[in-house]
Write a structure and sequence with these properties.
single chain, mainly alpha, 13 helices, about 0% strand
Length: about 270
């Protein structure tokens, strides 16, 4: 049963990598596995069997969700856009109680949260690069390595949406095609994977250090990322909400919110 629950949590985290504005690591916090994932990866060879028993079903769940998400789940996102987004807003808002109880906030902390929120708002709404089309140049290869590193950063740092970041970088379509057809672009996948692995190794050490030495500040920064993520999603759907769908949207929000509570009871 525990293995199935971990697999299910991996599915939810993986879906968060596909939906623009949603952070997989933020969902990992919602599901109560974020810090444990970081600890077990960094200390993989200590209690190796136990760590693999925990990480393997999670990882399989993430992989299945990403591969399916680039095809089947993306269809639901495109067909039922507003309903999918509201469901994930419910999941993210369900994170708030867990984060609030992990940190204290002074006036200075609230100012830091506000400034980060403004920075993330500018990052996601005002910056946009031309669409990236890969070619055989060195720059293109290095950029794909960079995109893999970006994926690691957004994967490990809660509240930073990988898909929203790729949209800003003009690389969202390229990444979707890469995930949807990995075997037909094996060379590009290897380059992307190299950047991803390097980024994960560096970011896990960095985030673990932040939790160890500056835990309160780290949780406040995560809280700021969470607020900006919710705001980004709301901006995407606010014009689509009307009297004909408000009840069903509210119901999906509640389902997403309480799903987090249920999955934490393991």
């Amino acid at each position: 049963m525990q293995t199935f629950i971990l697999f299910f949590k991996g599915l939810i985290i993986g879906i968060g990598k596909v939906i623009p504005g949603v952070s997989g690591s933020l969902l990992a916090i919602s599901l109560g596995v974020y810090e444990e994932i970081l600890f077990r990866i960094q200390n993989l060879f200590q209690s190796f069997k136990e760590n693999v028993r925990f990480l393997l079903p999670l990882g399989i769940g993430v992989l299945v969700a990403v591969l399916l998400g680039s095809k089947v789940l993306l269809y639901f996102f495109e067909t039922f856009y507003i309903y999918t987004v509201v469901f994930f807003i419910g999941l993210i808002v369900g994170t708030v109680p867990n984060i609030l109880q992990n940190c204290k906030r002074s006036f200075k902390d609230w100012m830091i949260i506000f400034l980060i929120f403004l920075g993330m708002y500018f990052f996601y709404t005002k910056l946009e690069l031309p669409e990236f089309v890969p070619d055989s140049s060195i720059f293109s290869f290095l950029y794909i390595l960079f995109l893999g590193f970006v994926d690691a950063v957004t994967m490990v740092m809660p509240g930073i949406s990988g898909t929203a970041t790729y949209m800003m970088l003009g690389s969202y379509t390229f990444i979707l095609n890469l995930f949807a057809n990995p075997f037909s672009q094996i060379g590009l996948c290897i380059l992307f994977g190299m950047g991803l692995v390097l980024g994960v190794l560096l970011m896990i050490r960095f985030v673990n250090y932040c939790f160890l030495k500056h835990k309160n500040i780290t949780w406040n920064v995560i809280f700021a990322f969470l607020l900006s993520s919710i705001f980004f999603l709301l901006l995407k759907i606010i014009d689509l909400i009307d009297s004909s769908n408000i009840f069903s949207l509210f119901l999906l929000f509640i389902i997403g919110f309480f799903l987090i509570s249920l999955t934490n009871k393991d």
